[in-house]
From TrEMBL:
The lineage of its organism: Eukaryota, Metazoa, Chordata, Craniata, Vertebrata. Residues 13-121 form the Dystroglycan-type cadherin-like domain. It comes from Cyprinus carpio carpio. It is found in: Cell membrane, Sarcolemma; Cell projection, Dendrite; Cytoplasm, Cytoskeleton; Golgi apparatus. This is Epsilon-sarcoglycan. One of its GO terms (cellular component) is dendrite.
Length: 402
């Protein structure tokens, strides 16, 4: 029998500033003391612990706050950038830790008190896309500090801070293949109090814009200061001066009490409504298309049925020699079909009639129709062709004889 326990910690209070990156690490070591030790000494760190975070009284977190935990054996991280709209409103986040070995839970509240400062947000903001980093790697304090140090060397501002960090997957990026240790990429937005340096402005030159349009890497003079640890996609850098951004305010109506005003009794429409004549609609919808279809049908029927030449007229206009050809082909086709029904009968000497090429006179075939073909040998000679009719030949004088 397994008993599921739930324990609560005291509330934690944090005080982030609006316009500055907020990072809070959910350490597994902090919750291990609430769970029974692992049976084997020295293996307590192997307990798989996952976290669930939500706004108190709601199923999810605020829109500006994100959470990530890669595996049950790694720490979870809450991160995001609060805005001025959240200033003065305490945000209570319920954090529940689940031990998947013992099925026990531990819970505590994180109270986020967002503060407002005059220094933030900084007016000049640049967003970099780092290709060789995941979001949890970039959220580590030492890695983020190294990146801000490289940016400060390039930008040379008096004040510099990280504003927000976003995973490329949250921007519509694709999950990388699990080969060659590929990373998903991360967007890092930083703010400063001075104008953008000439190195950052090199991305806006026509030559680099052309190289970016051709999917080529632009030439940036300060890229070597990042290349040792951070691979930046300079074609995706974004430079924004918020002092020149025109704010768009939408006029929203004041919400009411939710009760409809009392404007008197409801007066339904009168029952004595005027009748409507649908005859015109009938003509336009049915009669006119039907009449057009009938006219087209009559024209088509006249063209197909009343203007046919007919077989007799066609034969009268056809030369006799062509009719003889056609008749012989039909007769031969009929004879071949009848012969195919009984293949044991020997083939006749000839199945085509003979006709004069000039006059078209039909000459009987090599044997009459009543000639017995069943006893005819396959190889006939002049001696056994007794019933063969001689084909008429033409003399040199041009006269016919048989």
């Amino acid at each position: 029998m397994v008993t599921i326990l739930s324990k609560s910690h005291a509330d934690r209070n944090v005080y982030p500033s609006a316009g500055v990156l907020f990072v809070h690490v959910l350490e597994r070591e902090y919750f291990k003391g609430e769970f029974p030790p692992y049976p084997k000494a020295g293996d307590s760190s192997n307990d798989p612990i996952t976290f669930n975070t939500n706004l108190k009284g709601y199923p999810d977190r605020p829109g500006w706050l994100r959470y990530i935990q890669r595996t049950p054996h790694s720490d979870g991280v809450l991160y995001g950038s609060p805005t001025a709209e959240h200033v003065g409103k305490p945000t209570i986040i319920e954090i529940t830790a689940y031990n998947k070995r013992t099925f026990e839970t531990a819970r505590h509240n994180l109270v986020i008190n967002i503060m407002s400062t005059e220094e933030f947000p900084l007016p000049y903001q640049a967003e970099f896309f780092i290709k060789n980093m995941n979001v949890e790697e970039m959220l580590a304090s030492e890695v983020l500090g190294d990146f801000l140090g490289a940016v400060k060397n390039v930008w040379q501002p008096e004040r510099l801070n990280a504003i927000n960090i976003t995973s490329a997957l949250d921007r519509g990026g694709r999950v990388p293949l699990p080969i060659n240790d590929l990373k998903e990429g991360v967007y890092v937005m930083v703010g400063a109090d001075v104008q953008f340096s000439s190195c950052l402005r090199e991305v806006e030159t026509p030559q680099n814009q052309l190289r970016c349009s051709q999917e080529m890497e632009p030439v940036i003079s300060c890229d070597k200061k990042f290349r040792a640890q951070f691979h930046i996609d300079w074609c995706k850098i974004s430079l924004v001066d918020i002092t020149k951004v025109v704010a768009v305010h939408s006029n929203r109506p004041d919400p009411g009490t939710g009760v409809l005003p009392d404007i008197g009794e409801y007066n339904p429409p009168s029952e004595s409504l005027k009748s409507r004549d649908y005859f015109t609609d009938f003509l336009i919808t049915l009669a006119v298309p039907s009449a057009v279809a009938l006219v087209l049908f009559i024209i088509l029927a006249y063209s197909m049925c009343c203007r046919r030449e007919g077989v007799e007229k066609r034969n009268m206009q056809t030369p006799d020699i062509q009719l003889v050809h056609h008749s012989s082909i039909q007769k031969s086709t009929k004879e071949l079909r009848s012969m195919s029904k009984n293949r044991e009968i020997a083939w006749p000497l000839s199945t085509l009639p003979v006709f004069h090429p000039v006059s078209g006179e039909v000459v009987p075939p090599l044997h009459p129709d009543n000639y017995e073909t069943t006893s005819m040998p396959l190889m006939q000679t002049q001696t056994n062709l007794q019933n063969q009719i001689q084909i008429p030949q033409q003399q040199s004088s041009g006269k016919w004889y048989s």
